[in-house]
Specification:
Blueprint (H helix, E strand, L loop, with lengths): L9 E5 L4 E4 L5 E3 L3 E6 L12 E6 L3 E6 L4
Antiparallel strand pairs: 1-2, 1-6, 3-4, 4-5
Length: 70
Amino acid sequence: MLDQGPFVPFCVRMTDGDTWEVRHPEMAMVLRSRLIIALPNDNGQTDELPDRVVMCSLLHISSITPLQAA
């Protein structure tokens, strides 16, 4: 989904029920056993670099679904 064009934002649902949104292809990186997702800053500034990430084990991803258009 990260390499598809045009990019479609998506939601990653984990086996523990946590969900993470990927709204831009540069917000996520797939490694051998993990998906790393950069989280937006709490201050709402979209032009700043993220300062937090979440590491998702590929074994614990239960679904990836496209986000609905606003």
